[in-house]
């Protein structure tokens, strides 16, 4: 494997610190890995402008890439084009659901436990910037949903 | 610091978000319910994130902008720095300010600036949640008990003279239309436009900003260059 492929594989496998079942690849925030001026550059797009995990993710990516034998790398953040919930991969959506978080969907989220659409929003603001708080009216379980901003 | 027109414009947007975000963060540990605690902290974090993106877009060191400027160098509107007051005041201000910010971001989204459209696209998604949250609460408070109605009306009456400066550069009639739609459902009214407070964009602030900055800036000013 060449250096860029090695860096990409290492970066892609880094876990999101707030939703550790998802990798940065699942989340769709890994934009690019390329060699620029002799240095491997990894480009990441934050999910929310104020996401406090952005810094940790950058640190984790740097550490993972160096551990994979890449001597020098840098992580750059980009806002353009902006990340949207559609950037989450099908694999990422599957993992979210399995973990008990409803993947982003326009309208009322389905309960990740029993699949019922009969749910209510408890609060549009949850334990992290990217999640909202809901309750299932069929099985009575409370659950988180990944926010579907802008829709 | 050389304040080009672009930097001045960015600082106006950024300082509004930082100062209002700091005010909202003061509710942490004091909000009426746990869900509201999370909501206000989330909104504060969104605003501080927006401020950071805008400070970075100036090309100047963001920590210096946040922590090493004095009150007269801040470009935020006065309404952002007013103390939180009661919960009704905090919610009414959030609705007035977030509705104006949404219109400002809408214009920014189509500007030809190198950084603004991308920041605006993300900020508008976030602010949609803030507006909905503030509107839901204001309707509940205004159309609630006699006490909650009275407090909400008092808040609007006190805040109104600060809204002139808030809508400079955006379409005030669009802003007013959005606000009035909420007030009608909340059975609240707003005072007629009269004499308006101003000066924030030019660095002429209320006494409250200095106190806010004293708390916000004390650590980096006491320990320059400290890291952790």
Description:
The complex is a heterodimer of chains A (151) and B (228). With 151 residues, chain A is α/β, with parallel strands linked by helices. Chain A has four helices and seven strands. Chain A has helices spanning 3-12, 24-27, 53-67, 90-99; strands at 30-36, 39-44, 73-77, 101-102, 119-123, 131-136, 142-146. Chain A has a four-stranded mixed β-sheet. Chain A has a three-stranded mixed β-sheet with strand order 1-2-3. The longest helix of chain A is centred in the middle third of the chain and has 15 residues, at 53-67. Chain A is elongated and about 55 Å long. The N and C termini of chain A lie far apart (41 Å). The model of chain A has no long low-confidence stretch (mean pLDDT 92). By secondary structure, chain B is mostly helical. Chain B has helices at residues 5-25, 34-58, 62-67, 78-81, 87-109, 116-142, 146-159, 163-166, 172-185, 207-222. The mean pLDDT of chain B is 96. Classes of the chains: A alpha/beta (151), B mainly alpha (228). The A-B interface holds A 48-52, 79-83, 122-127, 129, 133, 147, 149-150 and B 35, 38-39, 42-43, 45-50, 52-53, 115, 117-119, 121-126, 128-129, 132-133.
Write the layout of secondary structure elements.
The complex is a heterodimer of chains A (151) and B (228).
Chain A (H helix, E strand, L loop, with lengths): L2 H10 L11 H4 L2 E7 L2 E6 L8 H15 L5 E5 L12 H10 L1 E2 L16 E5 L7 E6 L5 E5 L5
Parallel strand pairs in A: 2-3, 4-7
Antiparallel strand pairs in A: 1-2, 5-6, 6-7
Helix pairs in contact in A: 1-3
Chain B lengths: L4 H21 L8 H25 L3 H6 L10 H4 L5 H23 L6 H27 L3 H14 L3 H4 L5 H14 L21 H16 L6
Helix pairs in contact in B: 1-2, 2-6, 5-6, 5-7, 5-9
């Amino acid at each position: 494997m060449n250096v860029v492929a090695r860096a990409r594989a290492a970066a892609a496998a880094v876990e999101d610190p707030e939703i550790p079942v998802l990798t940065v690849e699942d989340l769709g925030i890994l934009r690019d890995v390329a060699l620029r001026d002799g240095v491997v550059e990894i480009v990441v797009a934050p999910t929310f402008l104020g996401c406090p995990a952005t810094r940790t993710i950058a640190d984790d990516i740097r550490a993972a890439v160096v551990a994979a034998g890449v001597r020098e790398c840098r992580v750059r953040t980009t806002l353009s084009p902006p990340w949207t919930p559609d950037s989450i991969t099908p694999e990422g959506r599957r993992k979210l659901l399995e973990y008990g978080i409803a993947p982003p969907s326009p309208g009322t989220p389905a309960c990740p436990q029993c699949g019922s659409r009969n749910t209510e929003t408890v609060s549009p603001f949850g334990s992290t910037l990217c999640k909202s708080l809901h309750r299932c009216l069929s099985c009575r379980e409370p659950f988180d949903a990944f926010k579907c901003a802008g829709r | 610091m050389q304040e080009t027109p672009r930097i001045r414009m960015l600082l106006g947007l950024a300082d509004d978000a930082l100062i209002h975000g700091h005010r909202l963060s003061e509710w942490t540990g004091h909000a009426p319910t746990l869900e509201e605690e999370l909501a206000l902290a989330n909104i504060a974090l969104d605003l501080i994130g927006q401020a950071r993106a805008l400070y970075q877009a100036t090309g100047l060191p963001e920590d210096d902008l946040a922590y090493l400027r004095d009150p007269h160098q801040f470009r935020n509107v006065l309404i952002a720095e007013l103390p939180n007051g009661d919960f009704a005041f905090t919610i009414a201000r959030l609705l007035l300010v977030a509705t104006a910010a949404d219109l400002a971001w809408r214009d920014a989204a189509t500007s030809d600036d190198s950084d603004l459209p991308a920041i605006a696209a993300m900020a508008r998604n976030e602010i949609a949640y803030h507006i909905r949250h503030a509107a839901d609460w204001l309707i509940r408070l205004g159309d609630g008990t006699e006490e909650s109605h009275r407090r909400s009306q008092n808040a609007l009456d006190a805040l109104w003279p600060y809204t002139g400066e808030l809508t400079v550069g955006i379409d005030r009639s669009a802003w007013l239309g959005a606000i009035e739609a909420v007030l009608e459902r909340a059975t609240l009214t707003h005072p007629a436009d009269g004499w308006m407070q101003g000066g924030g964009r030019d660095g002429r602030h209320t006494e409250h900003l200095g106190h806010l900055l004293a708390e916000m800036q004390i650590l980096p000013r006491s320990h320059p260059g400290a890291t952790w």
